[in-house]
């Protein structure tokens, strides 16, 4: 009986959290998010910028970890904005790297520091290769 | 029993409506790092611990874990525990409700996560998800019929301190537990771990055996006594190498043999776990309660 009550409480909490999560998913303009990137982080260069295999590996990683929210092809989806927006395409690799690493936690994007640094750069190589 | 079956089946039915997702899980089974579940995702996990028992029967303890990313800064988990003791019996041993909260927005030199868990378990619980106070192997030596009579209602607190550096993860989890019975003192323990993927760069091919899909590590965990007798006296400790294999199909397999470091410990705790992460669970749940998808 106690276990059943606990399961019901857990389910109610999850439902509540999911509603709260949906409510907090505002579209903050990319420019505002990019403006928060520290100056030191902006100047970081992509060590894979000249690696011809990096975009393909980054595309695979994007599909595995990012497409769920940002859509296949980074066109945007219900849970995350398009990454083909001008502001992001013109952003420096160091700025995007900082956002991927730290996330935009209060807006629902988790920090992706659990991916090793080279893999985060490979994702950025792929994003920068988008037409 | 039927109620427990329904409880287990309900999420499984719901999961059929969600889509599996590639996960990047750490190999730790006891230690936590600072990475939370992605918001809206549900990870369903099954873990097994096969333990040797001095002066008693060996056992197989198991648990189901439902881990939900409530927000990007809050992960909540529900556990159902059980065990089978050889030449004795099998029984359901209780549930746990765990919450992990990330107080800081960005990554820092060390990343803290606050952990709080409520446990409602019997003394027959043998999953040994953490070691605290004066927990020792002999606690598990009695018959299940005797052990199940004791109930523990506990609150457990941890500060998860974790750092990623050049592909390595370093995590330390000091813990404090309070049995809600007023006569029991605070108990203390620790867990720490270090892990690294076998490769830091991803290959361009989608592959099951690529080295970046494997994360190897080692954990050290044990008790630190209680408020009345703090220290290593009459405590147990384990060293456990661990390996996680993150498959492109969305499954993660973990394996970890844990070795007891003193005579108070079980000689061997062989653990393995299988998990799968599902995306879109929050949308599906929202739709179920009448919201627009």
Describe this structure in words.
The complex is a heterodimer of chains A (131) and B (293). Chain A is an all-alpha fold and 131 residues long. Helices cover 57% and strands 0% of the residues of chain A. Chain A has helices at residues 2-23, 30-35, 39-42, 54-65, 67-70, 86-90, 93-102, 117-128. In chain A, helix 4 (54-65) packs across helix 8 (117-128) and helix 7 (93-102) packs across helix 8. In chain A, 43% of the residues are buried. Chain B has a 12-stranded antiparallel beta barrel. Chains A and B meet through helix 1, helix 4 and helix 8 of A and helix 1, strand 3, strand 4, strand 5 and helix 3 of B.
Secondary structure elements and pairings:
The complex is a heterodimer of chains A (131) and B (293).
Chain A: H1 2-23, H2 30-35, H3 39-42, H4 54-65, H5 67-70, H6 86-90, H7 93-102, H8 117-128
Helix pairs in contact in A: 4-8, 7-8
Chain B: H1 2-16, E1 19-21, E2 42-51, E3 59-71, E4 74-85, E5 90-101, E6 111-122, H2 144-147, E7 151-165, E8 168-179, E9 187-197, E10 214-226, E11 237-246, E12 251-260, E13 268-279, H3 281-288
Inertia-based shape of chain B: globular
How far is the N terminus from the C terminus of chain A?
A: 58 Å
The number of helical segments of chain B is 3
Report the span from N to C terminus of chain B: 34 Å
Residue ranges of chain B: pLDDT <50 for 5 or more in a row? none
Could you say which structural class the secondary elements and strand pairing of chain B correspond to? mainly beta
Our Rg estimate of chain B from Cα atoms comes to 19 Å
Order of strands side by side in the largest beta sheet of chain B?
A: 2-3-4-5-6-7-8-9-10-11-12-13
As an assembly, this protein is heterodimer
Kindly name the structural category of chain A. Answer: mainly alpha
User: What is the strand content of chain A?
Assistant: under 5%
How would you describe this structure in keywords?
A: 131 residues; mainly alpha; 8 helices; B: 293 residues; mainly beta; 49% strand
């Amino acid at each position: 009986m106690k276990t059943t009550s606990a399961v019901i409480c857990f389910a109610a909490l999850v439902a509540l959290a999911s509603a709260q999560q949906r409510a907090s998913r505002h579209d903050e303009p990319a420019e505002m998010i990019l403006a928060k990137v520290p100056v030191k982080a902006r100047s970081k260069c992509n060590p894979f910028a000249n690696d011809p295999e990096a975009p393909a590996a980054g595309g695979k990683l994007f599909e595995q970890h990012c497409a769920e929210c940002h859509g296949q092809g980074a066109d945007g989806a219900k849970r995350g904005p398009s990454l083909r927006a001008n502001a992001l395409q013109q952003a420096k690799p160091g700025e995007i790297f900082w956002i991927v690493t730290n996330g935009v936690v209060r807006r629902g994007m988790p920090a992706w520091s659990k991916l090793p640094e080279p893999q985060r750069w490979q994702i950025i190589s792929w994003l920068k290769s988008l037409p | 029993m039927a109620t427990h079956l329904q409880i287990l089946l309900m999420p499984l039915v719901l999961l059929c409506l969600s889509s599996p997702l590639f996960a990047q899980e750490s190999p730790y089974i006891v230690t936590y790092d600072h990475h939370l579940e992605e918001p809206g995702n549900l990870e369903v996990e099954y873990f097994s611990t096969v333990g040797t028992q001095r002066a008693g029967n060996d056992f197989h303890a198991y648990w189901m874990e439902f881990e939900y990313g409530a927000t990007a800064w809050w992960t909540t988990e529900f556990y159902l525990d059980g065990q089978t003791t050889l030449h004795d019996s099998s029984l359901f041993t209780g549930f746990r409700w765990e919450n992990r909260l990330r107080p800081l927005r960005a990554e820092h030199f060390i990343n803290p996560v606050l952990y709080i868990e409520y446990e409602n378990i019997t003394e027959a619980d043998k999953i040994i998800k953490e070691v605290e106070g004066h927990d020792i192997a002999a606690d598990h030596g009695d018959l299940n019929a005797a052990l199940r009579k004791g109930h523990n209602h506990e609150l457990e607190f941890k500060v998860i301190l974790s750092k990623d550096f050049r592909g390595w993860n370093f995590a330390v989890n000091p813990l404090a537990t309070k049995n809600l019975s007023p006569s029991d003192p605070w108990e203390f323990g620790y867990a720490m771990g270090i892990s690294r993927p076998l490769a830091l760069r991803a290959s361009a091919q989608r592959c099951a055996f690529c080295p970046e899909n494997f994360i190897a590590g080692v954990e050290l965990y044990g008790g630190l006594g209680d408020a009345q007798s703090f220290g290593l006296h009459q405590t147990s400790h384990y060293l456990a190498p661990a390996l996680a294999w993150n498959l492109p199909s969305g499954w993660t397999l973990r394996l970890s043999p844990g070795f007891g470091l003193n005579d108070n410990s079980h000689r061997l705790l062989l653990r393995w776990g299988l998990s799968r992460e599902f995306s879109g669970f929050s949308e599906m749940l929202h739709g179920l309660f009448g919201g627009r998808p």
